[in-house]
């Protein structure tokens, strides 16, 4: 289980497949995102402009002509309620002037009702749908229904922009894995993790902004621009810090000890036997006098103790040359490695950074560990 003689990860057929899969998925995501922005979003924004420019309907228009102008009819609110626990919409039932009842779903982000039962409102129609209601003194207040033309862009815009931002993250991961992996010994170097994580967070963020806040597209673009600027600033600061700090061969880790039993996910790298060989269900039990692997999440059963003579040499990053390193890094980028020795045999145990101090505190050390 030598970890450092060959710092470059060998590029085999599996890496070709995984890299190509990332690049292909990323390209498809960008294509879908661009199509969503170019077709449904443009259609929705054009409809919003038409609605804003539409004139009030004159009496005596034909139904086809009336569909292109804005008409309003008086109505009385009979009752209103919140459907389930959703607080972004409110249902109201109104009785129109001709005696017909109509149920409307409103965009509403407050627990308080829009209007009281029995209130007089006006239903504003355009292209056959009630787009908003006006209410209050002089009907000066407006509340939009879910058929609001100003927010019809939101779902395709959120998906489109999100895919268009996250797609390059997958392309970058695939390209770096295929052509640039030899530039760093680490399985998940910051040059890979920081840009891809920043793009993913930004993509999800702009999608959430667009699809949950019921904003007009101009406001969504402003908020998305602010989110992009903040993301670039934070990612740039992290990259600058990492670049100036350089790659550390050893991670300083303060040991932690107490009288309790701690169970956390861990991987015995290269091992294919027993609980430690099942990466998705392997747990490490650390307690006074106990260091054992198990596949029981509680840590109470099926324990396989580690060798009694196991000693900790150091804690270090997960390297690309470690056994199973790329599979482990693909599942969890926060793993670090306890490099141990059992006589002449090297033993590598990977665990999350937040859990590693408990293992450091449980193992005797070849030399004193640094304290962060």
Helix content estimate: 25-40%
Structural class: alpha+beta
Series of H and E elements: HHHEEEEEEHHHEEEEEHEEH
Tell me, briefly, the overall form. elongated
Q: Mean pLDDT, as a whole number? A: 84
End-to-end C-alpha gap: 28 Å
Main β sheet profile: 7 strands, antiparallel
Q: Count of DSSP E strands?
A: 13
The helix count comes to: 8
Rg (C-alpha, Å):
30 Å
Low-pLDDT ranges: 1-14
* Percent range for β-strand residues: 15-25%
What oligomeric arrangement do these chains adopt? single chain
Biggest sheet strand order reads 10-9-8-7-13-12-11
Describe this structure in words.
The chain has 372 residues and is of the alpha+beta class. It is built from eight helices and 13 strands. α1 (13-38) runs antiparallel to α4, α4 packs antiparallel against α5 (190-212) and α5 (190-212) runs antiparallel to α6. The two termini are 28 Å apart. Strands 10-9-8-7-13-12-11 form a seven-stranded antiparallel sheet, covered by helices on one side. β2 (89-96) and β3 form a beta hairpin. The model is unreliable at 1-14 (pLDDT under 50). The chain has helices at residues 13-38, 40-53, 63-66, 154-180, 190-212, 217-245, 325-331, 356-362; strands at 71-81, 89-96, 101-107, 120-126, 129-135, 141-144, 262-268, 283-287, 290-294, 304-305, 311-317, 335-342, 345-352.
């Amino acid at each position: 289980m030598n970890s450092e003689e060959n710092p470059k990860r060998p590029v085999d057929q599996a890496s070709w497949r995984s890299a190509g899969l990332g690049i292909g998925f990323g390209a498809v995501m960008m294509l879908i995102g661009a199509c969503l922005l170019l077709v449904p979003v443009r259609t929705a924004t054009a409809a919003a402009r038409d609605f804003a420019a539409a004139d009030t309907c004159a009496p005596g228009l034909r139904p086809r002509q009336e569909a292109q102008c804005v008409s309003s009819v008086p109505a009385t609110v009979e009752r209103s309620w919140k459907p389930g626990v959703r607080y972004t919409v409110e249902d109201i039932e109104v009785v129109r002037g001709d005696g017909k009842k109509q149920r409307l779903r409103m965009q509403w982000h407050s627990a308080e009702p829009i209007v009281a039962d029995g209130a007089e409102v006006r239903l504003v129609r355009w292209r056959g749908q009630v787009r908003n209601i006006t209410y209050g003194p002089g009907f000066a207040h407006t509340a939009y229904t879910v058929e609001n033309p100003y927010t019809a862009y939101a779902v395709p815009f959120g998906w489109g922009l999100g895919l268009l931002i996250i797609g390059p993250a997958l392309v970058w991961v695939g390209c770096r894995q295929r052509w640039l992996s030899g530039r760093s010994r680490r399985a998940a170097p910051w040059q890979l993790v920081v840009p891809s994580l920043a793009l993913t967070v930004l993509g999800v963020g702009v999608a959430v902004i667009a699809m949950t806040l019921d904003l007009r597209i101009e406001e969504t673009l402003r908020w998305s621009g602010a989110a992009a600027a903040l993301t670039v600033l934070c990612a740039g600061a992290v990259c600058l810090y990492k670049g100036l700090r350089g790659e550390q061969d050893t991670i300083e880790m303060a040991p932690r000890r107490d009288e309790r039993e701690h169970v956390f996910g861990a991987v015995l790298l290269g091992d294919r036997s027993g609980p430690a060989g099942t990466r998705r269900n392997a747990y490490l039990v650390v307690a006074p006098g106990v260091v054992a692997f198990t596949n029981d999440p509680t840590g109470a059963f099926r324990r396989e103790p580690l060798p009694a003579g196991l000693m900790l040499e150091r804690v270090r990053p997960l390297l690309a040359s470690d056994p199973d390193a790329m599979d482990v890094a693909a599942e969890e980028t926060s793993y670090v490695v306890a490099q141990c020795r059992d006589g002449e045999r090297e033993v590598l145990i990977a665990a999350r950074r937040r859990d590693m101090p408990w293992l450091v505190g449980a193992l005797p050390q070849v030399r004193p560990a640094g304290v962060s």
